[in-house]
Design brief:
- By secondary structure, the chain is an alpha/beta fold.
- Among the domains are: 388-529, Rossmann fold, CATH 3.40.50.11380; 549-724, 3-Layer(aba) Sandwich (Rossmann fold).
- It is built from 35 helices and 14 strands.
- The strands form two sheets. Strands 3-2-1-4-5-6-7-14 form an eight-stranded parallel β-sheet, covered by helices on one side. The chain has a six-stranded parallel β-sheet with strand order 10-9-8-11-12-13, with helices on both faces.
- Helix 26 (479-483) links the parallel strand 4 (466-469) and strand 5.
- It is elongated and about 125 Å long.
- The termini are far apart.
Length: 756
């Protein structure tokens, strides 16, 4: 090689391209048949991004030396970058034939084969490159990418591992290996890889995005929010990131900020269906802006008709506003979609709509499979120990309906045989109930800020034997914790009146009223039947104090029909019966809970259309429990709803001494009042059809002596019936736990049983 060529190459390697080219051209002037200068000037054109000019120079070099493998590789690379992949592949084939031991020839050939949809040949080319040069970063990386695309994640991960041993800070490899870890739901490994990637490149958006998403999904919302804030500094006009930021703020209960974030997302992209869905939810849940919320959800549905759960969210919103336009057709369509396996409505909303236990089961199964697709660990036998360790998981260890029912049970547990621990997914409201519950438990563990994996680890560390899910799909659930199988026995109780449709739940606690023997197949859990009502009650709750009709806003005289359910449980069929009852007795009123102004206006409008004066519908404001029970005693007859009965509200009425009339439904949620009345020995208040329900309500409103007799029996039963005997109920519940423990310790799968 001449001294001039050596000088040119040295300048080229230093990046002094213009000087190098000048010397290459001097060489050409002296030896015009040399291939090298054409090749090197072609490479300079590649480096300058002047690809179209590089091609003829490289072809001129190859005309002079057709078997020069480096020139063939560079020629192929240039053609590939110009989109001429088939021609590029021909050059790489020639290079690999000319220099079979040249790793880059095989690597570049693999890239071209991948782009021409020949993945198996591409993989063979990468394999050959790695065999020749085990430290070839490009070949290792693209081989891993391709293995991932081919559904071979373990081999892909191994290729990334090899690459990262050579180059620990390779951002793309770390980012992609993190995705593989998350695909197998190894959140810790995924987060570790993305954190390492961001240490190498703090502005690497894919790692930030993925880390934020997984942090949010694993309950680490505050950390996720910090990543979204960083992303929005990098891309302030990214509507998707504003939407995700809003969802994270919502998880942190920072609703006003969440709304602002969704507003920003929609200013950037007015047709962003997910943001419309999210904003619609908060417009209702936080601000009670029904019409604006409905408009957002309806617009989202037009834009994205197949968005999971959206149809159900819109139907549920309309129910909460007593907005019944198109109700029957909409609900029929939801039912058909569910049975076709479509993700159209969340289980909690479907409870208030469907009376079909098969449809309710299918809805829960679809939801569980969608939300928790990774197989759970297998159950294991419960260990033998002196006391059974019970863990109660709830977001409602405070002034809330579940606590009102369960407080006495926690206190009545036999501490010689049971250890009980609260796992709190809610918050401390500073109430007397919170103080009482804190004293009732042997341990009180806050899991609200823990990821599902961290919460499950805490439960395993505590050695919990039986873990009780008091939320199910209601409120602020932690089903993801149960999906990790932290206890050998897991129980669905009280918060969700249906199957959870999940393989990681073992038992559902019920009674023969809510789940008859012949319907156990509608429940994926084994059924544990208690001998009386399944519903716990607290005998220590205050007895209703004296109240006056005037203070409650009721007329001084006349008959008071009442229902204090939330208004989403009210259907047009039930409301029509109630209006007929008002017409049957002119001095009667209907006393309801003021849930929201939209529903109040709609119900009053319907009443007036039926000739009932709007002021005969009286809406009560929410009150503290003791004040509510005091005023509730002023009612003459509590009218139940269907397909979703009164639950805690029903036992409130019975405790207050108010006769409760129900119609037995066809699913768990519609049979709760029948369960309570059976336990109170008042079966005559359970009807079998809506026609019978209306007839009996009319008779009771006219026959004051009969109603007075029922009230007398009800008052006596409050002190003697199983429903309000907390100690008796707790012994029955503990007997159920004992049977579950015996079954588990024997190594048997959960099986249905009845407590004697």
């Amino acid at each position: 090689m001449s001294q001039l060529v050596q000088q040119a190459i040295a300048l080229h390697q230093q990046g002094r391209l213009a000087e190098a080219e000048a010397l290459y051209r001097q060489v050409l002037a002296q030896t015009p048949d040399e291939a090298g200068p054409y090749h090197y000037i072609g490479v300079i054109r590649m480096q300058q991004g002047r690809l179209a000019e590089a091609v003829p120079l490289l072809e001129e070099a190859l005309r002079r030396n057709p078997f020069e493998a480096p020139a063939l590789v560079n020629h192929g690379m240039t053609l590939r970058l110009l989109g001429r992949t088939v021609e590029a592949l021909a050059s790489f084939d020639r290079a690999a034939a000319a220099a079979p031991a040249m790793p880059d020839a095989h690597f570049q050939r693999g890239l071209a084969l991948g782009e021409t949809a020949r993945p198996q040949e591409a993989l063979a080319a990468y394999d050959r490159a790695v065999t020749l040069h085990p430290q070839h970063i490009g070949a290792l990386f693209h081989r891993a990418l391709l293995l991932g695309d081919l559904g071979r994640p373990d081999e892909a991960r191994a290729s990334y591992d090899s690459l990262l041993m050579l180059q620990p800070g390779h951002v793309e490899a770390l980012s992609n290996r993190g995705l593989l870890a998350w695909a197998r739901r190894d959140a810790d490994a995924a987060l570790a890889d993305w954190t390492r990637a961001l240490a190498s490149d703090p502005r690497h958006a894919p790692s930030l995005t993925n880390r934020a998403l997984v942090l949010g999904e694993t309950g680490r919302a505050a950390e996720a929010l910090a990543d979204y804030e960083r992303l929005l500094v990098l891309a302030p006009n990214d509507a998707e990131m504003w939407n995700r930021r809003g969802a994270t703020l919502r998880a942190l209960d920072r609703e006003s900020e969440a709304l602002e974030s969704f507003d920003t997302a929609l200013r950037l992209n007015p047709d962003f269906a997910t943001a419309l869905n999210n904003r619609g939810f908060l417009r209702w849940a936080v601000e009670r802006r029904h019409d604006e919320a409905k408009a957002d959800l309806a617009r989202a549905l037009v834009l994205e008709p197949q968005m999971p759960w959206l149809k159900g969210e819109l139907a549920y919103l309309k129910m909460q506003g007593a907005d019944w336009d198109g109700r029957d057709a909409g609900h029929a369509a939801l039912a058909a979609d569910i049975m076709a396996g479509q993700r159209v409505v969340r289980p909690f909303a479907w409870q208030a709509i469907s009376a079909d236990p098969a449809s309710l089961q299918q809805c829960s199964r679809l939801f569980a499979a969608d939300q928790f697709p990774t197989p759970s660990p297998a159950r294991w036998p419960m260990p033998m120990r002196e006391r059974i360790r019970i863990g109660y998981v709830s977001a409602d260890f405070r002034e809330q309906a579940t606590a009102y029912l369960m407080a006495g049970v926690y206190e009545a547990h036999d501490r010689s045989r049971f250890e009980i621990t609260a796992f709190d997914n809610g918050f401390d409201d500073g109430s007397p109930m919170r103080t009482r519950l804190a004293q009732a438990f042997g341990g009180f563990t806050d899991i609200a800020a823990l990821s599902d994996a961290q919460a499950a680890a805490a439960m395993r560390e505590a050695g919990i034997d039986i873990l009780v899910n008091l939320n199910g799909y209601f409120g602020r659930p932690r089903s993801g914790v149960f999906a990790q199988r932290p206890a050998p026995v897991q129980v669905n109780y009280l918060g969700f009146p249906a199957t959870l449709g999940a393989p990681w739940m073992d038992y559902i606690i019920a009674d023969r009223s809510v789940i008859p023997e012949g319907e156990r197949h509608f429940y994926d859990e084994a059924v544990a039947w208690l001998p009386h009502s399944y519903q716990a009650n607290d005998a220590r709750r205050a007895r209703p104090a004296a109240a006056t009709r005037e203070a409650a806003g009721l007329p001084a005289q006349g008959f008071v029909f009442c229902n204090f359910n939330q208004l989403y449980k009210l259907t047009p069929e039930i409301f029509a019966i109630w209006l007929q009852l008002l017409q049957s007795r002119d001095d009667s009123v209907l006393w309801l809970l003021r849930d929201n102004d939209v529903a109040v206006a709609n119900l009053r409008r319907v009443a007036e259309e039926q000739g009932i004066a709007a002021d005969r519908l009286i809406f009560a404001e929410p009150l503290e429990l003791d004040q509510h029970l005091a005023r509730l005693a002023l009612a003459d007859l509590f009218l139940d709803t269907l397909p979703y009965n009164a639950h805690t509200t029903a036992s409130d009425a019975l405790w207050a001494g108010v006769p409760l009339l129900t119609c037995r439904g066809t699913a768990f949620a519609g049979r709760v009042a029948a369960s309570l009345l059976t336990a109170m020995a008042l079966p005559e208040l359970i009807t079998g059809s809506l026609a019978e329900y209306e007839k009996l309500a009319t008779l009771l409103a006219q026959d004051t002596a009969r109603l007075a007799d029922i009230r007398t029996r009800l008052a006596a039963a409050r002190d003697t019936s199983p429903l309000f005997d907390t100690a008796r109920f707790t012994r029955d519940l503990e007997a159920a736990y004992d049977i579950m423990a015996q079954t588990s310790r024997a190594g048997r799968a959960p099986q249905g049983f009845a407590v004697p």
